[in-house]
Design goal:
The chain has a domain of 148 residues: Beta Barrel (Lipocalin). The chain is globular and about 50 Å long. A five-stranded antiparallel sheet has the order 8-9-12-13-14. A four-stranded antiparallel sheet has the order 2-5-6-7, with no helix packed on it. Helices cover 9% and strands 27% of the residues. By secondary structure, it is mainly beta.
């Protein structure tokens, strides 16, 4: 399905992150009819990884490169965020096209696989009403819809990794802008009680045989775990695991928040080495605030 949202530009291109604007161009009507013969959108967030994997079906069978110290080399571009493409359609308006931003299969190749939705975190009963209220009012409560960083773990797996013997740098080109995490190897979390929580937290990494384990603490509760009101507390603790297999990385993320969750929440991805660069994302400009007519919004998954 192709979505086309017309947005008015004020100084810069707005990606229309939050809600439906006062003057949308028949968002779910005319555009959908025009897209009848187009390839459908691929659904849940994990699907974009499946699409990339389908391009290189033998990626996992490739040799696994290693650093001089013997550990797997995780460097490379591993994913492209399939956000919308923005195209100018008038002097002061732009079309936000979600469907055409998703890669198509090559001629004669099988259709890209469809991924199953991720499991949802299980909240304690006393927090169900809060999740529901945040979900209903996401266009105002979700800071990412106003160009604020998604934070860890919502930012997702790294899109590019730069690895040295002492640290790793995770790079992301997101709808909310460009983000990075510098993660020391065999480091220690800050013990300074005055250090404030941040969107991406305090990350340190170590090797468990051939698996890189990233431990993340001191995360701000200004962020969410995902769409639909999935909030967390300041007690959130995230562990990421990355294991390179050929030209793939098996990635898992476990979020443990004993304050609000009944049990730890885990999602997995298979990342596939990409042959091109990670292009810089356009600046995110919030021109939507104050122009909502209802609470509808597009998916904000990664």
């Amino acid at each position: 399905m192709e979505f086309r949202i017309t947005m008015h530009a004020v100084g810069a291109v707005s990606f229309g992150l939050a809600g439906i604007l006062i003057a949308p161009l028949n968002v779910f009507g005319q555009a959908a009819n025009q897209a009848t013969n187009q390839a459908t959108n691929y659904g849940p967030p994990a699907t974009s990884y499946a699409i990339e994997a389908a391009r290189y079906p033998d990626a996992a069978s490739k040799p696994t490169p290693r650093m001089a110290d013997g550990h797997p080399d995780l460097s490379g571009v591993w994913h492209h965020f399939f956000g919308g493409l923005v195209a100018k359609v008038g002097d002061n308006s732009f079309a936000f096209n979600l469907g055409n931003s998703v890669p198509r299969s090559t001629a004669g190749a099988p259709l890209p696989p469809r991924a199953m939705p991720d499991p949802l975190p299980e909240y304690k009963a006393q927090f169900a009403a809060k999740v529901k209220a945040l979900d209903a009012n996401q266009v105002k409560e979700d800071h990412t819809l106003h160009c604020m960083p998604p934070g860890v773990p919502r930012l997702g797996p790294p899109q590019e990794i730069v690895q040295t013997s002492k640290q790793l740098v995770f790079l992301y080109a997101d709808l909310t802008g460009n983000h990075w995490r510098v993660i020391p190897l065999d480091g220690h979390h800050s013990a300074d009680p005055e250090d404030e929580a941040t969107y991406n937290g305090d990350s340190v990494a170590h090797w468990d045989n051939d698996t890189l384990v990233v431990d993340v603490t001191r995360l701000s509760d200004d962020t969410w775990l995902g769409d639909n009101g999935l909030f967390h507390s300041t007690k959130l603790h995230v562990v990421e695991r990355l294991r390179r297999v050929g030209d793939t990385i098996q990635y898992s993320m476990t979020a443990d928040d004993p304050t609000v969750l009944m049990k730890p929440w885990t999602i997995t991805r298979t990342l596939t080495l990409q042959p091109d660069i990670l292009a810089e994302a356009a600046p995110c400009v919030d021109n939507d605030a104050g122009h909502y007519v209802n609470s509808e919004h597009h998916d904000n998954a990664r």
